[in-house]
Amino acid sequence: MSYSTTKKAILKSLKHCYTIDGNIRKFVILSDFHMGIATHYDSFLNNSKLIAFALKKYIQEDYTIIINGDFLELWVNKNIETIKYIHQDIFKILYKAHQKGNLIYIAGNHDSMVFVHPERIATRFSLSLRKNITCLPVPVYLSAKILRDNKPDILIFHGHQASFYNFYAIPLLRCGIRYIFRPLEIMGMKDTTRERLSRVEFKKTDERFTRYAKENNCIIVAGHTHSSVCENTGHYYNDGTVIMPRCSTLLELENNRFSLIRWDIHIKKSGTLKARRKVLIERNADVSI
To answer: How many angstroms from the chain centroid is the CA of residue 76?
Structure first.
């Protein structure tokens, strides 16, 4: 995918954008839950209790929670109703954030099906209940923009805008994963080229977003690649993913300062387990040439 195509995808996403006043709020940005139905393909299951604890802390401290795409794994799973039942504790926690007006949902490539239209609550039809059920009780957007006085705007989107197939050919990829590659993996076949190709694609993704941010004098925050990034000039950040092995990464934005955070489970000397928050990188939310 060329840079010009990436730019068009970004501009298309910005047409469905949620605008936020960044001068009076603090934010936590997290992405790529890939929440499933407690099967082998439910990547979120191992870190679900850790993220539940972290979300409760952020809600208590009055953070605005921005879910930056791929909240649900809908390429493999069809039924949101089952996902909501399996992970009902997370949905209950996020509902509390919604009640305080502190929840924003941006769609990614794996949950793009819940995006209908800005300002409209996303629903999916349940075959068992014979009615539409809500995903989260908030509108779903393709991007968000944090406006600040005398500082560059912060653009937030999932990050699949830099991949032609992940942005423009989602139905094709979803069909291939659900009906071809998933059955083959269940039979024991492994795609040995996927990891190498992903590394090449994700490096290009970071380069394209950095270029766009520099050309437009803004800051971009994305997810999608599952690899956290704090670009040297401050133009591009990636929050990583909450489903890393044994830990979760995310971004906090407070007082015009970004913090890349890792949450993990720490074993104390007493033998008890404790959820631990560790600051990996701190950087002013500004840009340099």
So the answer is: 17
Q: Name the residue range of residue 28's domain.
A: 3-284
State how far the Cα of 111 lies from the Cα of 135, in Å rounded to an integer.
10
Q: What percent of the chain is predicted at pLDDT more than 90?
A: 54
- Distance in angstroms (rounded) separating the CA atoms of residues 251 and 267: 24
Q: Which residue has the tokens 């999608």?
A: 224
CA 263, CA 279: separation in Å to the nearest integer? 9
Which CATH number do you get for residue 166? 3.60.21.10
Whether 194 shows a pLDDT value over 60: the answer reads no
The per-residue pLDDT of the chain, averaged, comes to 86
Residue 264: which H helix or E strand, with range?
A: strand 257-267
**In terms of C-beta density within 10 A (0-12 exposed, 13-18 middle, 19 or more buried), how is residue 67 classed?**
buried
